[in-house]
Amino acid sequence: MKEAQNLAKTARRRGDHRTAGKYRDAVITHREATKAFDAKAAEMAFKENNKGRKQGVIDLHGLYVSEAMSRVKLALESKSVAPRPDNTFRFITGRGAHSPGGAKIRPALQDFCTKKGLKHSLDSSQGMVTVELAA
User: Fold this and answer.
1) What's the confidence (pLDDT) of residue 60?
2) CA-CA distance, 114 to 108, in Å (whole number)?
3) Is the dihedral of CA 32, 50, 79, 135 positive or negative?
4) Is the CB of residue 122 less than 8 Å from the CB of residue 106?
5) pLDDT-derived band at 50, boundaries 50, 70, 90
6) Which single residue of 59, 61, 62, 133 has CA 20 to 30 Å from 95?
């Protein structure tokens, strides 16, 4: 993709707008395909990680922060995803041990809960955030 971007830039500088457009279109197509593959991979990872999980326990491992937060919002706002019997959700975020720079999902989830005024607690030894739903 980077090569196509460079070729488009070079063609544009030469004034060859037709060739630049061809390479630009290739870049756009590549980006769209990458997004689709990422979404499919996220869906597969989510399904695999959550097979056989107890009600209200959601594993977010293997997802990008934006994908994980979409799942969190869906769970908290949806009536089709049931919380645990104690009216909480447990989100398994991991500790960030395998992420360059440390945990990414957990801080994003904590920030989201704080901004939304949701009571939450962290079990950092297990890489899990418990979110309490309003009664």
Assistant:
1) 95
2) 10
3) negative
4) yes
5) very high
6) 133
pLDDT value at residue 6: 78
| Confidence at 9, pLDDT banded by 50, 70, 90 | confident
Burial 48-63 (b: 16+ CB within 10 A, else e): eeeeeeeebbbbbbeb
Q: Residue 90 pairs with which residues in a beta bridge?
A: 57, 130
Cα distance between residue 76 and residue 84, in whole Å: 12
Contact, 8 vs 27, CB < 8 A?
A: yes
pLDDT, tens only, 75-90? 998 877 888 889 999 9
Report residue 94: phi and psi, to 5°.
Answer: 85, 165
Burial class (CB in 10 A: 0-12, 13-18, 19+), 133: middle
Q: Read off the amino acid at residue 133.
A: L
